[in-house]
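Work package 3, deliverable 3.1, input record:
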Amino acid sequence: MTQEARSPIVELTDVDKRYGDGPTILDKVSFSARRGDFITLIGPSGCGKSTVLKLISGLSPASSGRIVVDGAPAGSVENLAFVFQEPTLLPWLSVQRNVELPQRLNGAGKGPRAETARRSLDLVGLSDRTDYYPRQLSGGQKMRVSIARALSVSPRILLLDEPFGALDEMTRDHLNEELLGIRQQLAWTAFFVTHSVPEAVFLSNRILVMSANPGRIHEEVRVDFPYPRTEETRESAPYQKLVGEVSRILRSVERLKQ
Amino acid sequence: MSGPKQGISAARALRRTLPILTGVGMIIAWYAIDMAMSPEQRFLLPTPGAVARAFVDEGPTLWGAALNTGGGALLGFGTAVALSFVLALILSLSPLVRASFYPYLMILQMTPIIVMAPILILWVGPGLKSVTIITFLICFFPMVVNTTQGLVSTDRNLVDYFRMCKASKAQEIFLLRVPAALPYFFTGLRIAGTLAPIGAIVGDFYAGNSAGGQGGLGFLAIIYSSRFQMGALFATAAVSCLLGFIFVAGVVALSWLALHKWHDSFSQSDT
């Protein structure tokens, strides 16, 4: 990790969000992320954790407050990529052409975009599946393609909204390790939404536990295990202890809700 | 392990030979019915042999007519496909546009061709032009409705993804909505493909014109029936049927070409 740039890459200050006259989704949310942070947002359903990602990406505007992304207002940043819970691949395009899509939409030339797509597919270990169509892939492979597509724009910020939520545990663990491996090479800043405490502890250096109605940041937990993290990290006692601790906080937040 | 496999291949062989056996059985039954008829009635049901003879005798006339009808059908069908695609694109832009066009499309579809034909003949005269327009009218509606439905049924997540990538409206339409609508488009094409030859023959029946060898299968049917040429009438029916098959086969082949690689309807696990 290059840690020399200590200035925040994403900063939210007193951000509120509500849709029309509906209930307040987010209430005075403030936090800042440094370059290279892996921040996981976890909390009960309806706490607005996915909404935070949408605000950072600019897909949806904040009702009040300030969001600065890479020195600019949210929505104006180029090198940002989103990975959704669904792989959202185009079924009529081959794996290769799916990964090329965001560059194609940006108007990139055929040669360079094919080259970057191949490199991204290499990173997720699917360089032998370039000519396959999405329906020929397993759920885990589809998600890998979706991640490769996000990486193909060389993002500085990666937003992941429960990307592994629909996968079995084995595949999920495996993809978690792969994701961290790619991060070692490409050093983006990640914002990750999940319902799984073990996943949150394994991936992040910071966990923001949120509470619902309205959505607030309840507590921040720091995870100081060194990267790279492996299967051994999962088996270690400090990891297990921290999983237990975050689960307890999450339970207390759930009780708060009732 | 060879036991069950042999059973499967035997079942497959049976499945292939059964239709042929049914066909042979039907021809025998046909001859039997013909023999049982009194000599005065017998002209009503020509034997398969008589139909075959009519094919030879009337060959040039039949194929010429089939070519005329096929041409009209293809022209009307092609125009309907092209124009319906353009209209579907316009209709897909907003529910408001759809609401303002649909009632008139319905009126067009609800008016029987039998009533439209005389109007058309008065407008453009009999012959290929009328036949083409009648075919067009029959094919247009199912094409517009299906293609429009396809264009507005794009997966919401994919649309959101395109918007997030800041795709232009044109990119969203031609890289996302149009390919996503292909399965619907081909459903419309299949319906229109079966209707096109029927439409052309019906059109020719009303608006056919023998002048300059322009007559089609519908016109030929009128002529043969007025002369009590039953064998030739049956041959005309057979050629019409063949024309329909060619259209459907063409559409099925096109849809296979466009969809088999990626669409679930061609999934291997189904077979």
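The mean pLDDT of chain A is 90.
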